[in-house]
Write a structure and sequence with these properties.
- The protein is an alpha/beta fold.
- It has five helices and 13 strands.
- The strands form three sheets. Strands 6-3-2-1-7-10-11-12-13 form a nine-stranded mixed sheet.
- The chain starts with a helix and ends with a strand.
- The model has no long low-confidence stretch (mean pLDDT 93).
């Protein structure tokens, strides 16, 4: 079985697990992850951040986006511009967002683009990951391509219940050094306090 086949099989199993997580756990873990993100030195120092808008069973990142807007940071949200391709687009309010082609809240097509190199702090979603930062996305490859051009701090966020001991990888997969769950930050696989 190839790594791609393993990833497809793992995605199927993990989607079932994700749907079975109790609502109170999804809510409490999501709140803890957003609170930890807001306390991170890299967030506080960032002038420009990019963050997805969590929907359905994903971590609700809207409180983070609202806090960053209130702090007058430059806030970007991904806009899917083609198969497997996304841009970061600046927003000034969550009211600017509307469901895009994949049903994910996105900025309008005319929102100002921001280069990945300008982003100081990038919050990366996943279906699952391992503690070493190998990510299993939802299968589109958007973030692997985008991460190649990012120079700031990137944080992979995942509920502890969705973490795996290992994730199959392919040559194009980008490993992240920071994984944040409700337990704290895993730096290259080691659990550390979330604030650094």
């Amino acid at each position: 079985m190839t790594a791609a086949d393993e990833k497809r099989a793992l995605r199927r199993r993990l989607r079932v697990l994700e749907r079975s997580l109790p609502a109170d756990y999804r809510e409490s873990s999501g709140r803890a992850i957003v609170s930890a993100l807001l306390s991170m030195e890299a967030y506080r120092a960032a002038q420009c951040l990019c963050c997805f808008v969590g929907t359905g069973p994903e971590i609700d990142t809207r409180p983070l986006l609202r806090a960053a807007l209130a702090a007058r940071k430059r806030v970007c949200v991904p806009l899917c511009t083609g198969p497997g391709v996304m841009d970061a687009r600046r927003i000034s309010s969550l009211d600017e967002l509307s469901p895009g082609a994949l049903g994910i809240p996105e900025p309008p097509a005319d929102a100002p683009p921001v280069s990945p190199a300008e982003i100081d702090f990038l919050i990366v979603p996943c279906l699952s990951c391992d503690r070493a930062g190998n990510r299993l996305g939802r299968g589109g490859g958007y973030y692997d391509r985008f991460l190649c051009d990012c120079r700031g701090v990137s944080v992979l966020i995942c509920r502890e219940a969705m973490l795996q001991d290992s994730i199959p990888t392919e040559p194009h997969d980008v490993r992240l050094s920071l994984v944040l769950s409700e337990r704290g930050v895993y730096r290259n696989g080691t659990l550390c306090p979330a604030t650094r």
